[in-house]
Amino acid sequence: MQFINLHTHQFTNDSTILEVVNQYPWEFDQSIPTYSIGIHPWYVDENRLESDLKLIDEKLKLNECLALGECGLDKRIEIPLEIQKEVFIKQILIAEKHQKPLILHCVAAFQEVIEIKNQLKVKVPMIIHGFSKNEQVAKQIIDNGFYISFGKYLMQKPELKSVFQSIPNDRFFLETDTITEPLTEVYQLAADYKNIKLTEIIETVKTNFTTVFKSNI
Fold first, then answer.
1. How far apart are the first and last CA of the chain?
2. Cis amide leading into 70 (omega within 30)
3. What's the CA dihedral at 10, 123, 214, 72 to 10 degrees?
4. Angle CA(123)–CA(63)–CA(213) in degrees, nearest 5?
5. What are residue 140's phi and psi, to 5 degrees?
6. How far apart are CA 61 and CA 57, in angstroms?
7. What region, left, alpha or beta, does residue 130 occupy, with left being phi > 0 and alpha being psi -120 to 50 degrees?
């Protein structure tokens, strides 16, 4: 196992990558060996909320379920923020119950996510995936105890170079999310930005994974 893909929507079955494949409770695929499961704010459906949360609770008991997610808040969708918050908090409580990390989707709601984390005194690690904002936002997130995962926007937005360089080496992950570029390209770019060897970035992410997921790979 060389690489870790913190968040992907596509299972590649590549033996050199540990993939945290995003799964939804309403279309769960039993054949995927390692995954996260959660209710994305885009897909909150109050008609099936109870059954979705029940399945998430059941899956988080299993070793192959590495995290709860993606879940979180998104101010740019029509679902009312208060409903999103209720569903988000219910998922946080499940993650706390099973002591599994949370992989977060956050759009224009960083302040609210930070407030919820602090109000609930969340103990499990929380990882903001797909980060695309500036150094100021990144610092605020890091200072409040979050981890940050980079991928799609690191590849697409050159201005993220300085943001990524500002992140402490013990606080980041790498991912592909929905991009078609191979994970190796994300890792190589990250190594170039940090001015270290590819092997070093691989070991850095492995160390962070061991810390956050309490798992030796």
1. 7
2. yes
3. 0
4. 40
5. -60, -40
6. 7
7. left
Number of residues assigned to the chain: 217
Contact between residue 71 and residue 102 where contact means Cβ atoms under 8 Å apart: yes
pLDDT averaged over consecutive 10-residue blocks of the chain (217 residues)? 93 96 97 98 97 98 97 97 98 98 98 98 98 97 98 96 98 96 97 97 97 82
The string of pLDDT tens digits covering residues 122-143 is 999 999 999 999 999 999 999 9
The answer for residues whose C-beta is within 8 angstroms of residue 24's C-beta and 6 or more apart is 37, 38, 39, 40, 43
pTM of the model: 0.96
Which token pair is 33? 């060996």
Instruction: Let me know: does 142 contact 168? Beta carbons within 8 Å.
Output: yes
Q: Closest by alpha carbon to 205, among 155, 153, 144, 148?
A: 148
Instruction: Spell out the residues 6+ positions from residue 199 whose beta carbon is closer than 8 angstroms to its own.
Output: none
Q: Name the one residue in this structure whose structure tokens are 């810390």.
A: 211
Residue 20's closest CA among 180, 168, 216, 209? 209
Whole-angstrom distance, CA of residue 71 vs CA of residue 131: 14
Written as six digits, the tokens of 175 are 């991912």
Residue 39 is encoded by which pair of tokens? 């209710």
CA gap 206, 217 in Å, rounded: 8
Q: What amino acid occupies position 125?
A: P
